[in-house]
Design goal:
This protein has about 325 residues and is α/β, with parallel strands linked by helices. The protein has 12 helices and 8 strands. The protein has an 8-stranded mixed sheet with strand order 6-5-4-3-1-2-7-8, with helices on both faces. The chain is globular and about 65 Å long.
Length: about 325
């Protein structure tokens, strides 16, 4: 069945990735404008106090942020970029949520981890063992770690959670919710790119095909993750530019089909040289535009709070585009 309807009955929750601050970076701004034009309601939770937090910490705070915006039992679609997709999976798997997850869509998410983190942590562990043998710095390092966590008000476990070893354990214990539909997207760099060259030098040693950060094999939804659908591997999209209108246009019919209890076919994605160049140009343009829109929104009195960088942005058909002060959490 081919479904072209893109009108949604239920809102989308857009979940940012590791270390991101949507109110400052404007990660979702271009997509937000597209969704507003389509009259599709959405929420961009700030989750501001957990930029470096673990999956557990981020999910717990994100659930509260979403619950603050919607009535109990509200159905939502979860779309996560990078680590945000892992958080979306974790949220959807939890019992007794105050809202109802209809679907999870991951955009460039390291579903099976990042190989180079495992290698890096291995060398770091060996280095710390050597230092401890020579200078007995174990207690000093533990004290530093505690102060670091206190400073950020977070367990700061996000990066370690994304190793292949940690994600293997996450996938083992985080079972798919049978009432939720799962989708994935991956980007792949086939043409050289200056902006991601340093990242790719590291990433491509461990994962030959990647978006500059996350390997295609890690981002793709396959049977080992449970029932789900990989919607496409898009040539020319970097780890950041995978958050784009093109991807959302192709995703919305699947979300609409989910609401109707049916399925729609996966549409092919062009990988032509010309299309890759177009995506590259659009990605750079959107990155600049997103920053501008984030700055512009911070100056609009109707949506500005005390600190726009820690706001939860919401669009509803009744209330329009607005924001509310992000809740500040303690550890």
């Amino acid at each position: 069945m081919v479904l072209t309807v893109t009108v949604l009955e239920f809102p989308i929750v857009l979940i940012h990735g590791y270390k991101d601050k949507p109110g400052e970076s404007g990660t979702w701004k271009v997509v937000e404008r597209f969704l507003i034009d389509q009259d599709i309601e959405f929420c961009v939770p700030a989750n501001s106090t957990t930029r470096f937090g673990s999956i557990e910490e981020r999910s717990t705070h994100m659930i509260q942020e979403i619950s603050d915006q919607y009535d109990p039992g509200q159905a939502v679609h979860l779309i996560g970029h990078s680590m945000g997709g892992i958080v979306a999976r974790d949220i959807a798997a939890r019992p007794n949520l105050p809202f109802r997850a209809l679907s999870v869509t991951t955009l460039g998410s390291p579903n099976r981890g990042l190989d180079y983190l495992d290698r890096g942590f291995h060398y770091l562990e060996k280095g710390l063992e050597y230092l401890n043998e020579k200078f007995e710095v174990k207690d000093l390092m533990s004290e530093f770690a505690e102060k670091f966590q206190d400073f950020f008000g977070s367990d700061c476990g996000g990066l370690s959670n994304l190793s292949c070893e940690s994600m293997s354990e996450f996938n083992r214990r985080t079972l798919n919710n049978p009432n939720v539909r799962y989708f994935s997207w991956a980007g792949v760099l086939e043409l050289p790119t200056i902006s991601y060259a340093p990242h790719a030098l590291i990433a491509n040693r461990c994962q030959p095909k990647s978006d500059g950060i996350v390997g295609v094999d890690s981002a793709m939804w396959r049977v080992d993750l449970g029932a789900g659908t990989h919607l496409g591997t898009v040539a020319g999209l970097t780890h950041s530019s995978i958050v784009c209108v093109e991807i959302f246009k192709k995703t919305l019919p699947h979300l609409a089909a989910t609401e109707r209890g049916v399925a729609t076919v996966v549409q092919p994605v062009s990988s032509s040289f010309r299309k890759q160049l177009t995506r590259r140009f659009t990605g750079h343009k959107d990155a600049i535009n997103s920053r501008f829109l984030a700055f512009k929104d911070s100056k609009v009195e109707d949506i500005r709070g005390e600190d726009h960088k820690v706001e939860t942005y919401v669009f509803t058909l009744v209330g329009g585009y607005s924001c509310s002060k992000a809740r500040r959490y303690s550890k």
